[in-house]
């Protein structure tokens, strides 16, 4: 993608490119923070709630366990882990998202950090999870390796990410929705609709279920498996340290 498609940081139309430079990604999410949860609910037709429940079940957090929730944004994905009795550490690159999250969920201990350089000791979490964030990291393999580093032996990884619908006719419709309808709807519900053009492009460029599983295994995780949600629109990958 040409650089002239990238809006400079600080403008209301800030967006990243598929180069996924960390500063650009952070700035883009800063600009969508205020209405991010609402936009997700509308654009997913309410399916994001079911996806979060599936992540909670897959992680299986127990009281007393430590859970790292990466790309936690405003903490919507983190709250259920705290409610289950686990110690959850919501972590995100975007200060704008974290500020909104702290205002809405003051009980959570938010941390600003880069997934490629986590400020945590080796083997310090029982589970690591990332929902709709791995796709936006500059170096997927380095991030998966870093997640493994901070997970204790026998600990779990759960990655929830957009994927490839398994029914071919629906896959065509879904792609058309991503590239045409999604940005138009975003103009009505998002504070930075330009960001959703990038998000649609990044979903199209993301590896399918099999290839993501291969990447997770290549980072040293074992027993990699996945299940499709909403017909493969989203895939839930699980692995063990």
Automatic annotation (TrEMBL):
Q: Where is the signal peptide?
A: none
* UniProt xrefs under InterPro entries: SAM-dependent_MTases_sf, UbiE/COQ5_MeTrFase, UbiE/COQ5_MeTrFase_CS
Q: What is its EC number?
A: 2.1.1.163
In its UniProt record, which GO terms are filed under biological process? menaquinone biosynthetic process; methylation
* Superkingdom in the source lineage: Bacteria
Identify a single GO molecular function assigned to this protein. demethylmenaquinone methyltransferase activity
Key word Thylakoid present in the record?
no
Under catalytic activity, the entry for this protein gives: a 2-demethylmenaquinol + S-adenosyl-L-methionine = a menaquinol + S-adenosyl-L-homocysteine + H(+)
CDD domains membership: AdoMet_MTases (cd02440)
Pathway(s) annotated for this protein in UniProt: Quinol/quinone metabolism; menaquinone biosynthesis; menaquinol from 1,4-dihydroxy-2-naphthoate: step 2/2
Q: Which UniProt keywords apply?
A: Menaquinone biosynthesis, Methyltransferase, S-adenosyl-L-methionine, Transferase
Relate the protein's function as given in its record.
Answer: Methyltransferase required for the conversion of demethylmenaquinol (DMKH2) to menaquinol (MKH2).
Q: What is this protein called?
A: Demethylmenaquinone methyltransferase
Gene that encodes it: menG
């Amino acid at each position: 993608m040409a650089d002239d498609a990238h809006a400079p940081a600080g403008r209301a139309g800030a967006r990243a490119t598929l180069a996924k430079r960390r500063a650009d990604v952070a700035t883009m999410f800063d600009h969508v923070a205020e209405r991010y949860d609402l936009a997700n609910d509308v654009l997913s037709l309410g399916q994001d709630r079911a996806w979060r429940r599936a992540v909670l079940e897959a992680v299986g957090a127990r009281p007393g366990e430590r859970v790292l929730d990466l790309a936690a944004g405003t903490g919507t994905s983190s709250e259920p882990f705290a409610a289950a009795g686990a110690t959850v550490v919501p972590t995100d690159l975007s200060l704008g998202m974290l500020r909104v999250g702290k205002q809405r969920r003051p009980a959570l201990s938010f941390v600003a950090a880069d997934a490629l350089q986590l400020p945590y000791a080796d083997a310090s979490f029982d589970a690591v999870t990332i929902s709709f964030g791995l796709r936006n990291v500059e170096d997927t393999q380095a991030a998966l390796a870093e997640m493994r580093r901070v997970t204790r032996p026998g600990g779990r990884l759960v990655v929830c990410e957009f994927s490839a619908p398994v029914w071919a006719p629906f896959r065509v419709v879904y792609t058309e929705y991503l590239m045409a309808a999604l940005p138009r709807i975003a103009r009505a519900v998002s504070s930075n609709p330009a960001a959703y053009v990038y998000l649609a492009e990044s979903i199209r460029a993301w590896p399918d279920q099999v290839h993501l599983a291969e990447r997770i295994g290549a980072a040293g995780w074992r027993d990699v498996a996945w299940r499709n949600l909403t017909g493969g629109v989203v895939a839930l990958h699980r692995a063990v340290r």
